[in-house]
Specification:
Blueprint: E1 3-8, H1 14-24, E2 31-38, E3 41-48, H2 51-56, H3 58-61, E4 67-73, E5 88-89, E6 93-101, H4 104-113, H5 125-134, H6 140-150, E7 153-161, E8 168-173, E9 178-182, E10 185-189, H7 192-195, E11 201-204, E12 210-213, E13 218-221, E14 227-228, E15 233-234, H8 250-256, H9 258-269, E16 270-271, E17 276-277, E18 291-296, H10 299-314, E19 318-323, H11 324-327, E20 338-344, H12 350-361, E21 365-370, H13 376-380, E22 383-386, H14 399-418, H15 424-444, H16 449-460, E23 464-468, H17 472-487, E24 491-495, E25 512-516, H18 523-535, E26 539-545, E27 558-562, H19 570-589
Parallel strand pairs: 18-19, 18-20, 20-21, 21-22, 23-24, 23-25, 25-26, 26-27
Antiparallel strand pairs: 1-4, 1-10, 2-3, 2-4, 5-6, 6-7, 7-8, 8-12, 9-10, 9-11, 11-15, 12-13, 13-14, 16-17
Helix pairs in contact: 4-5, 5-6, 9-14, 9-15, 10-14, 10-17, 15-19, 16-19, 17-19
């Protein structure tokens, strides 16, 4: 959450900062702001809402200064308004912040006793006043060092100083921060995505480090204030141009791009010539791993739940799944023969990164399944499996979810093969079906009209349920999450067999219930559960796969049939109509589909 940009240049920076903030808006869009130095003063302009609102301000359009910082906000402390928007400034210091200062209340009391006056409700403002207080007696480096030591929690900071017009300070603990290098100018940013339009040369700050950015060079310091050297990484020089094209929303485009995502992943990880899996650089021997723990948040957690079924079906490994935000606070019993797999689209998810950090500190084997290979989770994992789905802008993940479960499925096949749990013949058959999957997804994407017709019923209901068994259960959870994220209506995913243990009490006349019942090993049981909710008056939307056999049930409200394949791969196809259901439900309500309220794409705070 929250996006930071800083530029120290020999030419005016306000327009470039605004353009970079637009790229960072996926991190937060409650409010936005910019501060520059000119004529010996800090000039600060902020606005509620989107970056477009800030850009339209005539004062921004005439803003001077060759050094500046900008921010897009996802509110944690204080309402999303222009007063609480960043930057926060005193007469001498201006700060932009991503993260949470956990001891801000105590620090504020101390600073008020020193005569400091606060204007906002944010935790960030204590940083401004702390630095201002330390500058009375200390130089820049010591002021920053003392301030950072006083802060408890997570932060990425960009800092301007009225009396130091040639530098920006950046600092990081927990939240990501990168430095970019250009000709006669240097940059600070939350990630490489915002910086890549200006440079392909990047350095990432590690926890506890800070930097001083000047136009012609950058100095790095550890948490003790000692100068250190950092590597400069060269990214691909091609900036990815990604726009909506003819689509109304990025999400609509990203749903339709899913066959391409699958083709890219299969091309990368499946060796068609030898009919094998192209993952040869696993850094551990097969007998060194006897169990696997899959860790993620939100949609990535659902990917992990999906993978659990595959690993159990295809390998003899013990398999566990953890929500990242719970993992680090439990008393974990780490085992040397365990592999910990961390799943995150952005690779910057705060809870997932914290779980990875805990595993690293305990000497565990770690693997990342991410979309951004320059991310913190990718950099700090021993082994990285990129999902190759390209930029995903819509906050509600679609193609990244399919990319994640594809790579996890391929990884399960790989371990099954390595451990001789899958013989060559079975592996060959499964890879053959996998190669055909993108075409089946293309055909399933055509199930549009019926989904549009039923979406209104979900909008009008006070709640809905999504039911599935076995491989379909994680997809039911994901379908319910998508509807909640986009339409702001209550929806819950349940194992179909759990209905009699409580949720059945919620069923009432006309309540829409999605039943995922592909013709797999669980089909007959799921159909029985479906009949139980129909008997209580529910309107059942049955999603199954095409078959010559009739559906053994009556009084079904609507049926959507996806294409058929082996039961391992049916979850990919079942996902498509659920994504479209959420999309069309939100579209009919007129909601902002790509930027749903209260949510952000990259969750970089706990």
């Amino acid at each position: 959450m929250c996006g930071i940009i800083g530029i120290n240049s020999s030419k005016p920076v306000s327009a470039t900062i605004i353009n970079s903030l637009k790229k960072l808006e996926y991190r937060g869009y409650d409010s936005a702001g910019i501060a520059t130095l000119s004529s010996g003063l800090i000039n600060e302009i902020k606005s509620e809402g989107r970056v477009d609102n800030l850009e339209k301000n005539s004062l921004v359009q005439s803003m001077e200064g060759t050094i500046g910082i900008g921010h897009v906000r996802w509110a944690t402390h204080g309402s999303p308004n222009s007063i609480n928007a960043h930057p926060h400034s005193s007469q001498n210091v201006s700060v932009v912040h991503n993260g949470i200062i956990e001891n801000s209340t105590l620090l504020k009391k101390f600073l008020v006793s020193k005569g400091h006056k606060f204007k906002s409700q944010t935790d960030t403002e204590v940083i401004v006043h702390l630095i201002t207080e330390h500058l009375k007696t200390e130089n820049i480096v010591n002021s920053i060092k003392k301030t950072l030591k006083a802060l408890h929690g997570s932060f990425a900071l960009g800092i301007l100083f009225k009396d130091e017009p040639d530098l920006i300070v950046g600092a990081r603990r927990g939240s990501p921060l990168a430095v970019g290098y250009g000709p006669s100018e240097n940059y600070l940013g939350s990630d490489s995505y915002a910086l890549k339009s200006m440079t392909n040369k990047i350095t990432y700050l590690n926890d506890g480090e800070f930097c001083i950015i000047k136009k012609d060079h950058v100095e790095f310091f550890n948490e003790d204030g000692t100068k250190i050297n950092k590597k400069v990484l060269e990214l691909s020089s091609e900036e990815e141009k990604y726009d909506k094209g003819d689509y109304k929303h990025f999400m609509a485009k990203e749903i339709e791009e899913q066959p391409i995502t699958l083709k890219n992943g299969i091309k990368e990880y499946v060796d068609s010539a030898n009919n094998n899996i192209n993952i040869y650089n696993i850094p551990w021997k097969k007998n060194e791993i006897n169990s696997i723990t899959l860790i993620g948040c939100g949609t990535a957690y659902h990917s992990c739940l999906m993978a659990k079924y595959w690993f159990e079906e295809l390998t003899s490994l013990d398999v566990n799944v953890d929500i990242a935000s719970e993992f680090r606070y439990r008393k974990n019993r780490f085992k040397r023969d365990s592999l910990y797999v961390f799943v995150s689209q952005s690779g910057e998810t705060a809870d997932t990164y914290a779980a990875l950090d805990l595993c690293n500190k305990n000497g565990m084997k770690t693997c990342a399944v991410v979309n951004v290979i320059e991310s913190s989770i990718a950099r700090d994992s021993e082994f990285v499996l990129p999902i190759h789905c390209g930029t995903e802008i819509g906050v509600a993940s679609t193609k990244a979810f399919l990319g994640q479960i594809l790579i996890l499925y391929i990884l399960a096949l790989k371990f099954g093969s390595l451990r001789s749990d899958l013989d060559k013949e079975k592996l060959s058959a499964k890879l053959s079906d996998l190669k055909n999957l993108p075409k089946l997804v293309e055909q399933t994407l055509l199930t549009d009209n019926k989904i549009q017709n039923v979406s209104s019923t979900f909008n009008e209901a006070k709640g809905s349920m999504f039911l599935g068994r076995g491989f379909s259960y994680p997809i039911a959870l994901e379908g319910a999450l998508k509807l909640k994220e986009l339409s702001y209506v209550h929806a819950e995913g349940y194992p179909a067999g759990e209905m009699k243990h409580g949720p059945l009490a919620l069923i009432e006349e006309g309540m829409p219930v999605v039943v995922l019942a592909p013709r797999d090993n669980y089909y007959k049981k799921t159909i029985s559960n479906m009949q139980e909710v129909i008997a209580r008056g529910a309107k059942v939307l049955l999603i199954t796969n095409k078959s010559t056999n009739e559906i053994v049930s009556e009084n079904i409200w609507e049926t959507i049939e996806v294409e058929s394949t082996n039961q391992d791969l049916l979850p990919f196809l079942l996902t498509i109509p659920l994504q479209k259901l959420a999309y069309y439900a939100a579209l009919k309500k007129g909601f902002d589909i790509d930027k749903p309220r209260n949510l952000a794409k990259s969750v970089t705070v706990e």
